[in-house]
Amino acid sequence: MKKEVLRQGYTTGACAQAAVKAAMQMLLSGKNISEIQAELPGGRQLTLPVLDTCIQFCDGRYPGRPLSVSCAVKKDSGDDPDITNGVLVYGKVSFNDTPGILIEGGEGIGRITKPGLEQPVGAAAINRVPRQMIEREVKDALEEAECSGGIRVELSIPGGSKLASKTFNPRLGIKGGLSILGTSGIVEPMSEQALIDTIRAEMRVKLAEGRDRLIITPGNYGLDFLRNAYKIEDTDVIKCSNYIGQAIDMAIEEGCEKLVLAGHIGKLIKVSGGIMNTHSKWADCRMELFAAAALRAGVSGKRAGEFLGCVTTDEALERCSGEERKRIMAQVMQAIEKHLAYRAGGELLIGAVVYSNLYGILGRTENVERLMGF
Q1: How far apart (Å, rounded) are the C-alpha atoms in residues 56 and 69?
Q2: What are the backbone angles phi and psi of residue 139, rounded to the nearest 5°?
Q3: CA torsion, points 223, 228, 232, 236, in degrees to nearest 10?
Q4: Could you report the per-residue pLDDT of 3-56, keeping only the tens digit for each?
Q5: How many CB atoms lie within 10 A of CB 197?
Q6: For residue 70, which of 92, 97, 49 has the smallest C-alpha distance?
Q7: DSSP, residue by residue, 128-184
Q8: Rounded Cα gap, residues 336 and 351, in angstroms
Q9: pTM for this structure?
Q10: How far apart are CA 297 and CA 291, in angstroms?
């Protein structure tokens, strides 16, 4: 039976990048365009229709050029069941008397209201990689047109505020709209069985190469961490998404003898409670587990209770003193080690390393360095 191939889509970040690139071309040329080609962060080229263009001509301050241009790109999530599928992501660009490139969020773009997220409190919920790609498109357009001066970019998603109420954004402290996201620009369809089959296939290939241990991590940030902290190449790591328990089961079934799990505390804190599928739709008790670890570490009940009000584990870590962090993470790692060993059932040696973007390596299980080959 032929395996169904799911269609990829592209992220809100890719849409924003393409819309801004199209708007910049029209701002600097004064000519309308109907499609735009954009190179995404992962190197893939996309040609996308440009929709709902609005060109505002100026009053003579910039002769021969519009004052501002707004246009949209339609989000296509492929076969992924994404709530943002079909939304119009608008990019509006205009000349600005202040030098530099200002990127702001308009209608339907959320705003950060609590610490611990990627952008600071008060900023529009436009993540780092989309910001970088938008800046690149603006700079390239200015250089090609041999034009200097400041540019203001405003992103918007009409109806974004209503859609955001059905997402995890309000619980994260992102209020008023959706986020502009994406690290590669591509949406990978979330077919659970297809993803699990891919994880198993990767395990088989690596074990067939004669590897004596497998390294798994939930996602791209884990790849970055392993590369920077341990000089481990991406090709040596298997991305397991949220399926930590199933990855362990499959590793045992495929005859693996050693396994290392590396991940951000925001994911792996859940493993300390025995949660082996870390998707938020199944369980999100990060702060409860952190507070429980704090109590076991000897932190006062009042102090531990403060952690329950944190939005992210990074925020909770920021509230700790260095000594508190050390004691709490010792408890977290003990619990992670216990639950991983229970899941493995003595069939393989297993260890974990936990990190945060702010503090680097937070903890290792007792045998992880030996399992990593150091």
Answers
A1: 6
A2: -60, -45
A3: 10
A4: 456 788 899 999 999 999 999 999 999 899 999 999 998 888 999 999 999 999
A5: 13
A6: 92
A7: HHHHHHHHHHHHHHHHHTT--SEEEEEEE-TTHHHHHTTSSHHHHTEESSB-B--SS
A8: 9
A9: 0.64
A10: 10
Per-residue DSSP letter, 306: H
- How far is C-alpha 47 from the chain's CA centre? 24
Distances from the Cα of 324 to the Cαs of 308, 345, 357, in angstroms?
Answer: 16, 32, 18
Contact 283, 271 (CB under 8 A): no
Nearest CA-CA partner of 9 in 46, 50, 52, 51: 46
Whether the CB-CB separation of 125 and 178 falls below 8 Å is answered with yes
Long-range CB contacts (< 8 A, 24+ apart) of 220-226? 220/183, 220/184, 221/264, 221/357, 222/262, 222/263, 222/264, 225/262, 225/264, 225/355, 226/262
pLDDT at residue 1, rounded to an integer: 40
Q: Going by DSSP bridges, is the β-strand pair 360-364/349-356 parallel, antiparallel, or unpaired?
A: antiparallel
CA distance 311 to 286: 9
| pLDDT tens per residue, range 171-227 | 678 899 999 988 888 877 665 766 788 889 889 888 988 888 999 999 888 999 999
What per-residue confidence (pLDDT) applies to 2? 47
Q: Under DSSP, is residue 355 helix (H, G, I), strand (E, B) or coil?
A: strand
**Which segments of the chain have a pLDDT < 50?**
1-3
The residue assigned the tokens 């393989």 is 348
Neighbouring CB atoms inside 10 A of 11's CB total: 27
334: helix, strand or coil? helix
How far apart CA 270 and CA 274 sit, in angstroms, is: 7
Q: Is 335 left (phi over 0), alpha (psi -120 to 50) or beta?
A: alpha
Rounded Cα gap, residues 27 and 14, in angstroms: 20
Q: What is the per-residue pLDDT for 226?
A: 94
Q: Which residue has the tokens 């440009």?
A: 50
